[in-house]
Each structure stands twice: as structure tokens, then as C-alpha cells.
Amino acid sequence: MLDSVPQPNREKFGMNGLGLIEGCARCETVELWMEAPPNAQLVLIWLLDYLGSHAKTLDITLRHVDVSLGETAPARLAGSKFHGVAVNDYHLEIARLAWQAFRASTPHAWFNLLSRDLSALPQLRRCVWEMLEELPGISTGLGASELRILELIAAGYTHPFELFPHYRQRFQRRVFDYWEAGALLEGLALAPSPAVSGLAEWPFALEMHNEAARHARYKESVLSLTEFGKAILAHETDFSRHNPIDRWWGGTHLTNDNLWRWNSDLIAP
Amino acid sequence: MTRLILTADSSSAGAVVSAGHADLAVPIELRMVWGPPRSDAELAAFLAAKTSQSPDSHCSIRCRSRTEKSSA
């Protein structure tokens, strides 16, 4: 786990070769600073579930971080204070329930979290909603981020990188990162019945990024919606009726025969 | 006195150290929202001491999150 820390720092703090729990035990204070986007919240519930009672014996503090740490100027961040609480049994119980629900073979238990008091983990409820919104929509068969890509193309953003989530205000959705957005766009453009045309290069992988000519071709792609894509955006047709669906949502394997959908309510296949 | 902060990505880890909130910050860079669920053993290996995991298990998880397709 501590491999993600540069070697000199691991040596400086006596952490070489240690796992998380042993590493935490060497420190005077241990705090969890997990931000609001869904992936960070999922890491948080997994980590609390993994630590279990160790989180209390290690006296770990949970900070409710409501800014993007990496995008906040160091001087401003230095002066910022985030509310912190010692991890307790209630945090651990909510995290355990949520983590089990996320890994279940259907989204049902995850949906049922909405009827519980999740306030001990203040950003979890929004995470639950945002994840549910990534299930295929009832009329479009697309998740919220896929639909957002179509909306942005329709609005005139025609180059791939204009459609990516690092434009936070524009993209609005917070579930997927750069690489995942590239895969979503490919799914829309390379499907048997594509919703998007004009993608000039693929696959969206490190190899393509390392080859300047291919990367330039990708970047300069001029995207547009197909007639099918326009019909999806108008909620007149369903992507999944014309294309294979094979993706994971938590522990749920979404396929055409197992297509859990979302329409402000959970709809079973 | 070592103040440790755990974050969900490396830019956040760098930020909290630069801002003086921690002496050491560890990013837990797993992508939970993408791909098939990882087994408990695979996840536990990510947090385990180096001696109890395969030499490249950490890298394999991180690389997998970068390259796997939704159908993986």
C-alpha cells in the first residue's frame, strides 16, 4: 500500500515494507481526507470496512472534506479547517452496509441505502444518487455520463477532449475520470449502432497517448451525433435495444438480459 | 511526531503535505467505479505489507484501472 509513497519518504518515516495498519500504528495521528466525488467516497467506505475496529484502536479521524484538495492553492488549503470526528461504530456500520451493497449482484441494496440515515458519512448520500444515475436510463439505455457526452456534442463541443470530465463545470458529472471517459466515448462511437461518428483513433490507451501522430489524430477528431444518437438524446430510442451492453456497475454485471435501469427509481430487468 | 493523512488520489496527497496538514500522505488510488469488482483478497493485498503480496500486485491494480474496458 505504501508503494504509492516515494521511496525516500517511506524510508524517512520508517514505513518501508509496511502495510496500511502497521504504517498507521507508527504515526501519532492518522486522518482520512476523502473528497466528495463518488470514487473517493467508495474508497472511504471500503477502507472503513477493511479497517473495522482497527480504525478505533488507531484513533483515526475522519475529516469531512468539501473542496477539491488538488485544485486548492496551498496557501488557502493551509488555512482551511475541515470538521473532523473520531471514527466510531456508527461510521463503521454504515460503511460496512454501503460497501456490501455496492458489491452486491444487483443495485437493490445500494438503492435501499437511500431510506437509511447516512448522515454519519455526510457525502455518501450524494454518492449513492450519482452512482444510481450511471445506471442505464429508462428511455435511453445510457448512464448519465454517457448521455452528458451526447448533450455536449449536440451543444457544439466536437473534439474528444472537450467532452472529458476535467472540465468540471461543463461535464457536471463526477463519477468517471479521464481514462474512463475515453472508454465511454469509444463505447458510443464504436458500437454496432453508433450514437457518435467521427472518432478518428482508438483504442484510448496509453499506447495511443505515447504515439504523437495517433494522439493528434484522436485529438483532432470532429465528432457529431448520428441520427441514432440524436434520437437517443431526444429520448425517442434506446441505445441498448440496438447494441450489446456489457459493463459493470459495482457488483452488478449489466447486460442486455440483466439491464437494471434508473428513472429516479430503480427498475429491475 | 508523524501526521499521516490518507487520500483517494495523488494530487490530493501532494496538496495536503504542501499545505502543511500532514508530514506524510498516502494516496489510495483505486478506481471503484469502473470494471468488475475486485475480490476481497485482491483488495486486501493492496493494503498489505509488501512481503505478503506479489511483487507487482499494487501496479497491476493501478494499471488495470487505466486500461480495462467496461466489458473486462
Mean pLDDT of chain B: 75
Tell me which protein chains meet in the greatest interface and how many residues each side has. A-B, 65 and 53 residues
User: How many strands, which pairing sense, and closed or not: the largest β-sheet of chain A?
Assistant: 3 strands, mixed
Quick check: average pLDDT of chain A? 95
Distance between the termini of chain B: 44 Å
What does this structure look like?
The complex is a heterodimer of chains A (269) and B (72). Chain A is an alpha+beta fold. Chain A is built from 15 helices and 9 strands. Chain A has 2 domains: 115 residues, no CATH class; 124 residues. In chain A, a hairpin with a 3-residue loop joins strand 8 and strand 9. The model of chain A has no long low-confidence stretch (mean pLDDT 95). Chain B is α+β, with helices and mostly antiparallel strands. Chain B has 2 domains: 30 residues, no CATH class; 40 residues, no CATH class. In chain B, 39% of the residues lie in helices and 12% in strands. The longest helix of chain B is centred in the last third of the chain and has 11 residues. The relative contact order of chain B is 0.16. Chains A and B meet through helix 2, strand 1, helix 3, helix 5 and helix 11 of A and strand 1, helix 1, strand 2, helix 2 and helix 3 of B.
